[in-house]
Amino acid sequence: MSPDPVLIGLVEDDPIMGESLVQRLTLEGMAVKWWQAGQDALGEIAARRFEAIICDIRLPDVSGEAIFRAAACGVKAPPFLFITAHGDIDQAVRLMRAGAADYVTKPFEMNDFLARLGDLMRPPKAGEETALGVSPAIRETERLLRRVARINSTVLITGETGTGKEVAAHFLHAMSEAAPEPFMAVNCAAIPADLLESELFGHEKGAFTGAAQRHLGYAERAGAGVLFLDEIGELRPELQAKLLRLIEDRSFTRVGGERQLRFNGRLVTATNADLPRRVAAGSFREDLYYRINVVTVRMPPLRERREDIPWLMERVFAELSRRLTTQTNGISAFAEEAALAHSWPGNIRELRNRMERAIALGMGPWIMPGDLFPEQMPGRHEGAQQLGSLEEARLDAEKRHIQRALASTQGEISAAARLLGIGRTTLWEKMRRLGLGAEP
Fold first, then answer.
1. Which residues pair with 67 in a beta bridge?
2. Reported confidence tier of residue 385, pLDDT bands at 50, 70, 90
3. Which among 253, 195, 186, 255 has a CA at the least distance from the CA of 226?
4. 105, β-bridge pairs
5. Considering only CA atoms, which of 16, 20, 42 is closest in space to residue 32?
6. Regarding beta strands 261-262 and 251-252, do their DSSP bridges make them parallel or antiparallel, or are they unpaired?
7. Half-sphere CA count of 35, side-chain side, radius 13 A
8. More confident call, 289 vs 332
9. pLDDT higher for 37 or 400?
10. For residue 15, with 0-12 CB atoms within 10 Å meaning exposed, 13-18 middle and 19 or more buried, which class applies?
11. What is the DSSP string of 152-179?
12. What angle do CA 423, 434, 370 make, to 5 degrees?
């Protein structure tokens, strides 16, 4: 017996557009409930289980946004994909910040539309290719970055030190249409305050002592790409005012110059500071805060995404072992367990630094807990008693590896066995012995 088709809701008053979408979605194997009036949709969306709602914004009776807000109050509200011939960036941002899944403008390419619809209906799977991590928290962040990449709004990336805010900015740039254009990164806390304006906006020849020739700043060199300002909270008040003008007027002036230059890029900022508190204290402009905070992306700390720790360790090991002279073969199960138990106050930056030291200075063929956490070694004898036997560690590591294979194949035993390079019967036996619930 075949499963019931996926049920999609469509709110579209244009009969030609509506009929076209119904036909195509039906061909794709979906069931479609089509409403040509918003009021008709309001009552039925909450009463039935829809996988997604495709909704026009401008309708003859109520707005699509009103339908979305009403549906969002219900239990297990379906994701909304808005379509409109009157789209603009402000409207897209308002809807996405309110929780809408995606937004396209007419006319659109049908294959791209179907791909977007599929993305918002399909949750990420355990074995699916990912760029930032495998944990649910970072997958949700990655999904948000992919959505935000489709619009050109200013983005503020927040998070603790070392959580990968610049990596997220690079990913956002790579997923956007501006990917071939430059990515210019500026650390506002690393450049001396008296040089930062010149580095950001450039200067003319003779603008100040030592300015022997014209210098193009980061804003100009970014072109149609991304200007990424890290540690934006450290920007001086006078530069905050000039950055505000760059955002509002899309223009700037070189130091010592008079001609207004056009800023064609996208501004992405990042901070680990509490900007609302700085606004309240008067050290950060409130108007600038609201201009850079059009879309906020929070990078979760490692303690909220522990599933990513082994994944990150393996990625870092693969990268560093290629360029460092080392006899290390890999990461031991002991080291992985120690890493999972660590609080990682320095987040990914700390993990990378500890892995680099372990690879460079490790004495054995495998990275051990003492290589990652040498400061904990004075009590290593007591720690060894708590670690358990080598056999227990081997079985635990084998169990986790099998669980990862099963997760990546959605529980398909034969596929997992092929992935692990063993026979199906062998995998059944290992699962039974390790208590993974296998039944012959």
1. none
2. very low
3. 186
4. 84
5. 20
6. antiparallel
7. 22
8. 289
9. 37
10. exposed
11. ---EEEE-STTS-HHHHHHHHHHHSTTT
12. 105
Residue whose pair of structure tokens reads 């006319």 in the numeric block: 107
Distances in whole angstroms, Cα of residue 368 to Cα of each of 218, 225, 398, 432:
43, 43, 17, 29
**What is the sign, positive or negative, of the torsion defined by CA atoms of 409, 412, 416, 418?**
negative
Q: CA 224, CA 438: separation in Å to the nearest integer?
A: 55
Q: How far apart are CA 380 and CA 409, in angstroms?
A: 39
Q: How far apart are CA 304 and CA 307, in angstroms?
A: 9
- What is the Cα–Cα distance from 350 to 356, expressed in whole angstroms? 10
Describe the crossing of helices 136-148 and 165-175 by its angle, rounded to 10 degrees: 50
Give the Cα separation of 437 and 20 in Å (integer): 48
3-class DSSP state of 273 = coil
- Answer whether 156's CB lies under 8 Å from 271's CB: yes
**Helix (H) or strand (E) segment spanning residue 328:** none
d(CA 247, CA 245): 5
The pLDDT mean for the chain works out to: 85
CA dihedral (168, 174, 177, 178) positive or negative: positive
Q: Is 83 within 8 Å of 56 (Cβ atoms)?
A: yes
Tokens of 387: 């670690």
Amino acid identity of residue 343, one-letter, is S
How far is Cα 274 from Cα 291, in angstroms, rounded to an integer? 16
* Amino acid in the structure at residue 271: T
| Other CB atoms within 10 Å distance of the CB of residue 122 | 10
Instruction: State the amino acid at position 119 in one-letter form.
Output: D
Q: How open is the CA angle 403-404-410, to the nearest 5 degrees?
A: 85
Name residue 67's amino acid.
I
Q: Would you state the structure tokens that stand for residue 182, as one six-digit string?
A: 């430059």
Give pLDDT tens digits for 87-101.
656 666 677 777 788
Beta bridge partners of residue 230, listed in sequence order:
187
The predicted model gives 213-229 an average pLDDT of 94
- 281-294: buried (b, 16+ CB within 10 Å) or exposed (e) per residue? eebbbeebbebbbb
Token readout for 423 is 């026979």
The residues near 354 (Cβ < 8 Å, ≥ 6 apart) are 372, 373
